[in-house]
Amino acid sequence: MTLISFVVPAYRVQGYLRECLDSILDQPFGDLEVIGVDDASPDDSGEILAEYAARDARVHPVRLAENVGLGPARNIGLDRAVGEYVWFVDGDDWLVPGCLPHVADRLRDTRPDVLLVDHVRAHWNNVGTRSAMRDVFPEPPGATTFALRDRPETLRLLHTAWNRLVRREFLVERGLRFEPGWYEDVSFSYPALMAADRIGVLDRVCLNYRQRRTGAITRTRGDRHFEVFAQWHRVFRLMDRWGPAVAGLRPAIFERMVWHHLTVLGNGDRIAPELRAPFFAQMHADYVRFLPPEGYPVPPGVEGLKHRLVAAGRWRTFSALREAHQAGEVARRTAVGARRRVAPVVRRTARRARDTALREYYRAELRRPIDPTLAVYAAYWYRGYSCNPAAIYEAARRLAPQVRGVWIVRRDRVAALPPGVEYVIAGTREYHRVLARAHWLVNNVNFPDFVRKRQGSVHVQTHHGTPVKVMGLDQQRFPVGAMGMNFAGLLRRVDRWDYSITSNSFSTQMWERAYPADYTTLEVGYPRNDRLVRATPEECRRARAALGLGADEYVVLYAPTHREHLPGWRPPFDPDRMRDVLGPAGRLLMRSHYFHDRERHPGGPAADGVLDVSAHDRVEDLYLAADVLVTDYSSAMFDYGVLDRPIVVYAPDWDAYRVARGVYFDLLAEPPGAVAVDFPGLLDVFRSGAVDDETARRARAAFRDRFCALDDGRAAERVVRRVFLHEPA
């Protein structure tokens, strides 16, 4: 028999589900199965479950025809589980590495009905807060089991399904299942503890409970929070049915009910102001209804006062005390903030007068009406005219000529602009004016922090690549690669987005996790790749000729990514040895990352078959000219894959890179072609013909199916029609 069945419901968790599944399947323990329940999720959660099932026989996906909710979805998983124990893990949480052997040992040694494990709250800002385990059990129970009547303090642990493993036959025998509705854990977790003869506690953190910035029920206002009352009613009905066996637990259970109601009411993210009085009234009614005849242990201090006010039904007094407490907290935070602002104020007063005047001008322009025809474009921190914004600009000129497009560029990049492109120079008075007045703002990175999101303006974040390396909030776990990043500032910038353009489902999933906010995702392909899809042989010949390359030459483009954690890093790559392997007809194009653009020198004719193309403005020209791409962890591979030409992954520092910078998937296990982990291996790839053999072609086909399927030459058109012309998706 399988020891542990994981039941993982999935609904709108595509950005987190891979991490959840990986955390289970990568454990140094194999006696498990995963029942993944796609609760008719409107995102790609179901496709992710199917993908994992295709490559790991331990994963069993279940796809529901209609959404049933978390509780019923767990029941469906439970009905299909075969393990001795069941662990209900939500699709946005994840296990701690290496925890399962310890869990398994405790299960086998003590055979509990319920095993409680510790957890941490993993907040979106990378702050972790511990659970109440140490407070409830200052002295860990160790490898012993007990009944709830012997350790009633166990009730003070969080009443969730995911911090406990439950013996499957015990659930079947007791008829314990999840009820529909919100707060479904209440009517499952407390009865399970009351019915268990053998409860165990593993004093080890085993699960990360994700505290999402957006999308979580606990951060969603609405009247559905009133469903907490029905769940508690079910608990007391069960106690009435079970009679004397659990009667002694009624006071402790009642105290937990009042605590939980107060917790829900006290959370401003759940109960809107107009619903607080009726919620309190229901709390009072349930207090009177379920109060044990013998009373219950009322907590001391302020918490006890809250209990007494609920008992008396004194909403006005309760509300007044709550408002007074909140006012005191605001005053305290204001005082602290004032002290913290002293140093920034001193620094701001030292800024140049010109910058101050420009900001004042910008604020004045914000008071003027938005220009309904103005679209502002930028790319790569004003490095010029390129990438997805350029493709969208060109499509808008064709499909929406009433839109006036203006580009922002650095002064040193003006000469590289195509003829006829209207522009302003970054930092000037005109620059501040268009940023303040634009109806549409299109960028493949974020605009500066001072830019305000005006009501009626539309911010379009196009991004600039499918991610291999972790991005956004995910970088918090890799501080070496995130040095100097201000994540609070990043989120303020992300909150300005109205649209996020993605090239494939994988990118959509990762951006949802890395940049949690209330934008709309347009999963339409990458506009910059339209040109690659539509390119003709003649256009490829022109691209070669512009670089001084002949039609019969074998052209290899080498384009590595940047390493934030290694300033000044240069890859272990010897152009001369590479040129020798390519032979007389071989030509090597070398392109550095755009972060090094100020170090670039215009390339001249190829010297001994090697040409530095770092200063070339449009990387798409280089893709069209090249027969083969050699790269490491750059998003270039996803764009070049559109051309269906050979790609070689040269990853000499893969282990160090994924530890320092973090990656979203195992590139060496799922490459777009041949792989080399050192320079001699790279040379052998070309000597042996592995660069484009059958194995490489199969890998490239699978890679293209996964990442390039949406690139059909019309991505920019889809963006323009949706964003500028307001046509339906």
From TrEMBL:
An example GO biological process term is: teichoic acid biosynthetic process
Which keywords are on file for this protein?
A: Cell membrane, Membrane, Teichoic acid biosynthesis, Transferase
Q: Name one Pfam family in it.
A: Glyphos_transf
List localization entries.
Answer: Cell membrane
Cite the Glycosyltransferase 2-like domain residue spans from the record: 5-169
**InterPro entries of this UniProt entry?**
Glycerophosphate_synth, Glyco_trans_2-like, Nucleotide-diphossugar_trans, TagF_C, TagF_N, Teichoic_Acid_Biosynth
Q: What is its main location?
A: membrane
- Source organism, top-level taxon: Bacteria
Is Cell membrane given among the entry's keywords?
Answer: yes
Q: Which GO terms describe its molecular function?
A: CDP-glycerol glycerophosphotransferase activity
Give membrane topology per the record: Peripheral membrane protein
Gene Ontology terms: cellular component: plasma membrane
Return the PANTHER family for the record.
TEICHOIC ACID GLYCEROL-PHOSPHATE PRIMASE, TEICHOIC ACID GLYCEROL-PHOSPHATE TRANSFERASE
What family, per the record? Belongs to the CDP-glycerol glycerophosphotransferase family.
The identity of this protein, by name, is: CDP-glycerol:poly(Glycerophosphate) glycerophosphotransferase
Source species, please? Answer: Micromonospora sediminicola
